[in-house]
Design goal:
The complex is a heterodimer of chains A (116) and B (684). Chain A is of the alpha/beta class and 116 residues long. Chain A has four helices and six strands. Chain A starts with a strand and ends with a helix. Chain B has 684 residues and is an alpha+beta fold. A five-stranded antiparallel β-sheet of chain B has the order 4-3-7-6-5, with helices on both faces. A five-stranded antiparallel β-sheet of chain B has the order 8-17-16-13-14, covered by helices on one side. In chain B, helix 6 runs parallel beside helix 9 and helix 15 packs antiparallel against helix 17. Chain B is flat, with a radius of gyration of 38 Å. The chains are: A alpha/beta (116), B alpha+beta (684).
């Protein structure tokens, strides 16, 4: 797994992991999410389009990130999970917890307008 | 590469006798090599820099006279080698020479052999020319087939060279192997005497002994001996030293240099020793290879096949010829199997194995049960066993394929196993008598039994179980039974592969000391899976991730066979869910059974016509039930209280929902897991 972070706006971070988020890589991913608020990030968009696999340790990192960002008053949303990741979200029923968008543009608009 | 040294007087004399002036010689070199060369007598030419003696950028040939003492030296170096001639009255000049050789980028000739080496930068460090020459020699000896005799000339060259650099009367080096073979190198008889003497009276290791020459003739000029013990390992021991004129004091720098030279000599001898023993082993191996061919031609090339039974075998000798052997033959409706172990290895063992194979194949035509075959074979080989004063352990099984009864005799061999699949039980079939060769004619007991579908008979040699790991623990019969009991494989070869992997994992790179032989027989059963893959893996998160992906790859390819009629989407969903369940299960074992400590995760994936099964077991701690059954509360659709969400515990939730059946049990101090999922079916 490798991760790219972009800032379409100073207060929004688009996190774009690539590859597998599993037992071997999830702690790195978790740490990365944890550091975001201290870097002036308010909203986090996680672009999952290049993630081929995610297990429960990856989901845990997402939940931890969601709770942290929410506490700071921001939003954490997901974009474009692929079928294997969608399966993991469904099996854990976390697909009902996360806001999931099909495109990055929708996600940016949503966190800006806060109608998520 | 050429190194030549000569006395300055000789060099000059040669130049003179060839009708060449010293200047003409320099001129000839200049023409031949294209290098700048100067030669002069008296005052150095004005164009030479006076502040430094050596110019590192112009591969120069210089003679450098001094008004006080006739000291001079010349050097030439090119891509082919280095030619030196020097006389030094001071160590400083020798050191300067060494610096020259080292710092100069034109030292390519000596470097050529090193350039492919892993550490090129180390070469450039200013050590000493002689040391590096020795290092190159070591390398050469390792790569080139060069017996000691050829090395001898080189050693003498190095000694001569060292003599000149250190302005010594003689330089000597001596080495002894196993307190027997002894090699002494010196440039004069006196040097040989000194070498012999100090090989008996070795200085303390790491210490540079400097003392008056003990063999100095009375009345002759005094001389000093400098000796050190070489830091070589058993079975080698050796010394290196030199004899110098007068009473000699060494500077710290010189001492250091000599110690380093000693180290290089040690490396050289070690390398030579290694080379020689390899050459010896090589000869032996060639001899053995011939015998191996004989043995190979006798071992069954193809095992009998047929409906109603399955046989698989494996033999892996530790050396080229092992002491283990087996045979499987089918005559009529009977299957005859034997597996044995000859004490000792090598050619005699190979010949004895050949005799056993011949005796066995002749016996099966007129003997019907294991006991009479054992007697028959024993009769035929007894004389030879007696002559060679050796013994053989041997297990023989005869299966009647019509009624599935078998007879079994074991002459001092490792126990065999009868896996009774319906009861998931193992019956040990022990030795029923002493090894062949212990007594003239031994009475053996015969065991009998009736096999049922799915039953497996395992014959093996102790090389399988007596594998020691780095902590000194044996794999043992429990290690073997773990694998045999775990699953009913689709093919016996897969089980053999799993055993081999387990043995390799247990050994963890340590050399194997004993042969390994395995022989398995099975009566097929409808309960036997159609495909299986057995695995042994580690418990690090990287191992877990890799194993998950491997299992997913197998699943993907099996889906084509077992769910061909299902839609692509259904197959994908099956694969995604299954891979998730595997990832969660393995991670769970690594985290909660092993607590992130290194451990072993074993298991099998089995494909039945209707479902896929994963069986996994580990040796970690028992799992707490709250770990097993914990799940985050179901979140209602709509308003979700994010704060109440758990960060953890999704793993088992995934397992429970991704597969059709799952189970966990604690047995034999192991955690056993089983996941099952029905293949997706197409619409009919």
């Amino acid at each position: 797994m490798n991760v790219k972070i972009e800032h379409p706006q100073p207060n929004i971070a688009v996190v774009r992991p690539k590859g597998r988020i599993d037992a071997a890589t999830s702690s790195q991913f978790r740490d990365l999410l944890r550091r975001l608020p201290s870097q002036g990030v308010e909203h986090v968009i996680i672009d999952l389009r290049d993630v081929s696999f995610m297990d429960s340790s990856g989901l845990s990192a997402l939940v931890a990130g969601l709770k942290l960002i929410r506490r700071k008053g921001g939003a954490l949303v997901l974009v474009g999970p692929q079928p294997p990741v969608r399966m993991a979200l469904q099996l854990t029923m976390l697909d009902r917890v996360f806001r999931i968008y099909n495109s990055l543009r929708d996600a940016v608009a949503a966190v800006n307008g806060r109608h998520y | 590469m050429a190194v030549m040294t000569d006395e300055p007087q000789t060099g000059l004399a040669q130049a003179a006798s060839a009708g060449l002036s010293w200047q003409a010689l320099a001129e000839a070199w200049r023409r031949a090599t294209g290098f700048t060369a100067y030669a002069w007598e008296g005052t150095p030419p004005p164009e030479l820099p006076t502040s430094q003696v050596w110019d590192m950028t112009t591969r120069a040939v210089w003679a450098w006279p001094s008004p006080e003492a006739p000291r001079w030296f010349f050097a030439r170096w090119d891509d082919k080698g280095l030619a030196l001639s020097c006389t030094t009255t001071t160590a400083a000049l020798a050191q300067a020479l060494v610096q020259l050789a080292f710092n100069h980028e034109q030292m390519r000739a000596l470097q050529t052999q090193r350039e492919q080496g892993p550490d090129r930068t180390a070469w450039a460090k200013p050590l000493s020319l002689s040391q590096n020459f020795l290092a190159v020699l070591c390398d050469t000896l390792q790569t080139v087939d060069r017996p000691l005799l050829a090395a001898q000339g080189l050693i003498n060259e190095i000694l001569t060279w060292m003599r000149d650099i250190f302005w010594a009367r003689d330089v000597f080096v001596a080495i002894e192997q196993n307190n027997q073979t002894r090699h002494i190198f010196a440039l004069s008889p006196h040097g040989r005497t000194l070498a012999r003497y100090y090989l008996h009276n070795m200085p303390e290791p790491g210490h540079l002994l400097i003392e008056p020459d003990p063999f100095n003739e009375p009345g002759s000029a005094p001389s000093t001996v400098i000796v050190q013990t070489l830091p070589v390992n058993e079975p080698l021991r050796g010394i290196f030293g030199m004899q110098v004129a007068g009473e000699h004091e060494l500077s710290e720098d010189e001492k250091q240099r000599l110690t380093m030279l000693g180290r290089q000599w040690a490396a050289f001898w070690e390398s030579l020793h290694r080379y020689q023993s390899q050459a010896r082993t090589h000869r032996l191996e060639q001899e053995l290879r011939v015998a191996r061919q004989i043995q190979d031609s006798l071992l069954p090339r193809q095992l009998p096949r047929g409906p109603g039974f399955e046989v698989a075998a494996f033999l892996d000798p530790a050396s080229i010829i092992g002491g283990d052997f087996y045979d499987v033959q089918k005559v009529g409706s009977r299957l005859y199997m034997m597996l044995g172990d000859v004490a000792g290895k090598g050619v005699p063992a190979a010949m004895l194995i050949a005799m056993f194979l011949v005796a066995f194949r002749s016996a099966i035509h007129h003997a019907e049960d294991a006991l009479s075959i054992m007697h028959e074979v024993h009769k035929q080989v007894a004389h030879e066993l007696d002559r060679l004063d050796t013994f053989v352990t041997l297990a023989i099984v005869v299966v009647d394929l019509d009624d599935r009864t078998f007879t079994y005799v074991n002459a001092g061999h490792t126990e065999s196993y009868w896996l009774r699949w319906q009861h998931r039980q193992v019956r040990s079939l022990p030795a029923t008598g002493l090894p062949l060769g212990s007594l003239p004619l031994e009475d053996y007991e015969q065991l009998e039994g009736t096999l049922r579908p799915g039953d497996i008979l395992w014959l093996y040699s102790d090389g399988v179980t007596e594998v020691t790991n780095r902590e000194g623990y044996l794999l043992g019969r429990s290690g073997l039974l773990d694998i045999l009991l775990a699953t009913q494989p689709a093919h016996l070869e897969q089980q053999i592969d799993a055993i081999r992997r387990a043995v390799a994992l247990h050994r963890d790179g340590l050399p194997r000391e004993d042969d390994m032989a395995l022989l398995a027989f099975r009566i097929p059963s409808p309960e036997v899976p159609q495909l299986s893959w057995t695995f042994v893996g580690g418990s690090s998160m990287l191992d877990v991730s890799a194993l998950t992906q491997q299992l997913a790859r197998h699943t993907r390819s099996w889906l084509h066979t077992f769910a061909a009629s299902a839609s692509q989407e259904a197959r994908d969903n099956f694969l995604f869910a299954w891979e998730l369940a595997i990832a969660e299960l393995l991670t769970n074992i690594a985290r909660h059974a092993y607590h992130a400590y290194p451990g072993r995760i074993q298991g099998s994936m089995l494909a039945y016509p209707d479902r896929l099964v994963l069986e996994v077991w580990d040796y970690g701690e028992i799992l707490e039930t709250d770990v097993l059954y914990y799940a985050p509360p179901d979140t209602p659709n709509g308003d979700v209280d994010v704060e109440s969400l758990s960060d953890e515990g999704y793993g088992l939730m995934i397992i429970r929902r991704a597969v059709d059946r799952w189970s966990y049990r604690r047995r034999l101090r192991r955690n056993w897991w089983r996941l099952e999922k029905y293949w997706p079916r197409g619409r009919r």
